[in-house]
Amino acid sequence: MDDWLKDSDEVEASWVTVDLAIFTLRGDRLMVLLVDRGVEPFLGWPALPGGYVQKDETLREGALRELREEAGIEGGLLHLEQLGAYGDPGRDPRGRVVTVAYLALGPDLPVPVGGTDAEHAYWATVEGLGRDGARLAFDHSEILAEALEEVRRKLEYTPVATAFCASEFTLSELRTVYEVVWGQTLDPSNFRRKVLKTTGFVEATGDQRMPYTGRPAALYRRGGAWVLSPPLLRVGRQPA
Question: Residue 228, Cα to own-chain centre: how many angstroms?
């Protein structure tokens, strides 16, 4: 079997890369991290940060390294998980390259700094990319679209919205995450009731935050649940 594979014209060497769809909220807008490519192919094109996996590192280690090298962001404190693998034969003009895409979420992440083969790293509004029809290098537009829908879905069924918040947050801040990511306005009282009735979603810290005006707001942290039951669904959505 091994000799057949070695001599077969139907099998060729493949390379493995990692790409990262990194989302944060800045100024109540959903942002994604992009880089302008400093090398061919797609020189000057916007792209998701990423690159080749080195022979002595795991996929996750490669993703964290690329995050440091291309954007100057330490990913250890981010919510980081695999999104999926993309391996269409023509996705990279350099040859057969299979990429493993990662989804990363964090609260108010810093201004990135480009490096290695990234000419420039920056935050772009997700809304602006969709409105302007911006095309990303390789198949990154497809990866970004699927990553965005995965984030929206995960907000329905998991407490991952808290990854966009500081370690302690108000329910108003948590509601803002849902409204921005979903693009929907939510009733504050109804949202509060649903969150507090969902076991393990959040837990009260016992502290309060004093606003500039108005009454103090109770602070919460993420609870111990990994799945929201019942789910917190988008307007117009039915349970899967």
Answer: 20
